[in-house]
Amino acid sequence: MEFKGAMGGIYRLTEWITRFAATNLLWALCSSPFLFFLIMKLIVMSQQMNNESLQMNWAMAIVAPLTLFPATAAMFTVVRKWVMGDSDVPVFRTYFAGFKQNYKQSLLGGLFYTLLTIVMYVDYTVYMTQFPNLQMIGVIMLILLIILFVSMFNFFSMVTHYHMTIGQIIKNAILLTLIRPFRVFSTLFGSAVLVYVGVRYPVLFIFFIPCIIAWFAFFNFYGTFLKMQEQLQKQQTDGESEGKEAAAEETKN
């Protein structure tokens, strides 16, 4: 039964609210070990317990590749279907199919991103605090750390959209961030706004915000993908036209 008018709009709105909430709850469930240590870190930080805060950092670094990255890749599997027009896809089945299918690549990617983040963050901290004359290197490390973080939006999108090796996915995710920065950094800006709202209303993190960020990230990635595909087809068409013109001129001569 299909509703029309105002009732139809309300029905579709509640449908989308349910889809986002269900996907977000599945993500929170599958990444719960990481979220647990994150919450514990926030608690010990508020009590200025520095040693315990450092321990939580290591705990999050250990569980992130095992839980957070596969759970996020599965969430991107669902929002990819929505962005590409398949809005009636079953959320539960699609989520866990994506979790299983992309687990290995998201785990390996999680190890890469986690280790590189630790190395860059330690370098940044050391250069900024221990070597005052070399703080420029610390600034460079911070810039690289931001680029690395932003490239994760492309990484999760590529894991769910392409069939590539993990090395190709990571390389292309970073390259796409560098050569097409506008859409990716607009995703970062939008994510920052959503996180700010979530800080004021924490319950939104449980039901909506991570899933909305994933949807927005893949939406921007897919727009870039379609634009690059269009440019490639145009180049191929132009090349074929030039080839035909050259052949015709040669025949005429």
From TrEMBL:
Q: Which Pfam family is an annotated match for this chain, by its short name? A: DUF624
Keyword Chloroplast applies: no
Keywords attached to this Swiss-Prot or TrEMBL record, sorted alphabetically, are:
Membrane, Transmembrane, Transmembrane helix
> Does the record's keyword annotation contain Transmembrane helix?
yes
* Spans through the membrane: 21-44, 56-79, 106-124, 136-156, 177-197, 203-225
Organism for this UniProt entry: Paenibacillus terreus
Q: What is this protein called?
A: YesL family protein
